[in-house]
Amino acid sequence: MSFKKSAMKVREAVKKHHKWMEECLTMIASENVSSALVREVTASDFGHRYAEGSPGERLYQGCKYIDEVEIIAVELAKKLFRAEYVNVLPTSGTVANLAAYSALAQPGDVMMALAVPHGGHISHAELSAAGVRGLKVKSFPFDSEAMNIDVEKSVEKIREVKPKIMLFGASVFLFPHPVRELREAANEAGAAIVYDAAHVLGLIAGKQFQDPLREGADIVTSSRHKTLPGPQGGLILSKEEYGKKIGRAVFPGLVSNHHLHHLAGLAVALAEMLEFGEAYARQMIKNSKALAQSLHECGFNVLCEKKGFTQSHHVVVDVSKNGGGSKVAEALEKANILINKNLLPWDDITNAKNPSGIRLGTQELTRVGMKEKEMKEIARLFKRAIIDKEIANVRRDVIEMKKSFKKVKFCFDREEAYKYYEFF
Ligand SMILES: *Cc1c(COP(=O)(O)O)cnc(C)c1O
């Protein structure tokens, strides 16, 4: 193959991918779609430039408009999350976590976090970012029935292991974490509280989940591209007193170029959340509750029925009786329904290849305008695909259904947005 052919093949693959995504129910809980305006600024010349340093004090020339954008991004994030300090430099959620670990702890210190089968993210583990900082990780005792941290047992364990950091937040995150309940135990142990909001930042922005900074978190770390529909990247929010330490840990510590095109996209996404975030987050939660209830009625073993299944964008299903997470996820992919397999609390971590669970997210379907009615339909499609094994028919129906949901909602119209910008 000539090099030109390789290049054209890349372009072709991207085009085919776009068409495929348009024809799929995209339900992977860590993903989202950004608006036309976010995409436009993300594809801009900002992506070719460097801007080390801070606005007004750059080490490079040519930054005056980049400075404007960075100032807007920080101001909007402060307003949206009522944060005293904001750092928009981290290039991913994992980098944001590593920066928080570097700012708060030394190698050899203990951090408490959730174990991966309980929903902890890999960057909370010793084999990833926590280990890179040399932290010893002890896990929070977990109540598998409530799918949450066990507060009483945690108080005991905090006294015993004396962590430097208590890390809340997870990648399987059905209910708010007990930040307020464990703040006193943190004080007693001299621990700082970090809240990893990667999954739920859009829900927090829409005031529909918990408010970690008001409940006792010292630092909030996050991605920008899960429920918050920005381009990929990371973000840190904190009380003013941690600002200097975080700033140094991020730059010059972990980031040199902060991906300025993604910074521009983030700024637009934050403005969209200030305008539409509440309505979006409310609908997202209504949708996940409706999806969970309908899947339950279709005969699936949806976790946490007694607690109303979920208070976030997540729905978690035990599919061990349906062949396990791998088999179910692969069958659904053939039907153009994209989800991922997931460990459940009782799974052995060595069995990660075929865990008992699947994790679903309603954020992206909500963004394109789906509501409770569509969630019911989707539950029936799951039943037909997995229980009745009608893959080909389901695929056809999914493609048909998606035709009515092509436009991203909860965002500025591009034309309107230009008018709006004159007031900035
Ligand atoms: C996705 C995720 C991250 C990491 O985000 P990246 O931007 O992919 O590095 C961190 N923490 C949690 C809880 C996550 O789910």
Structure write-up:
With about 425 residues, this protein is of the alpha/beta class. The protein has a domain at about 40-270: Aspartate Aminotransferase, domain 2. It has 16 helices and 17 strands. It has helices at about 5-20, 35-40, 65-80, 95-105, 130, 150-160, 180-190, 200-205, 210-215, 245-255, 260-295, 325-335, 365, 370-385, 390-400, 415-420; strands at about 25, 55, 55-60, 85, 110-115, 135-140, 140-145, 150, 165-170, 190-195, 220-225, 235-240, 300, 315-320, 335-340, 340, 355-360. The strands form 5 sheets. The protein has a 7-stranded mixed sheet, with helices on both faces. The protein has a 4-stranded antiparallel sheet with strand order 13-14-17-16. A hairpin with a 2-residue loop joins strand 2 (about 55) and strand 3. Helix 6 (about 150-160) packs parallel to helix 7. The longest helix has about 40 residues, at about 260-295. The radius of gyration is 22 Å and the shape is globular. It starts with a helix and ends with a helix. The structure holds pyridoxal-5'-phosphate. Pyridoxal-5'-phosphate binds near residues 30, 121, 123 and 198. Pyridoxal-5'-phosphate binds near residues 123, 169 and 223.
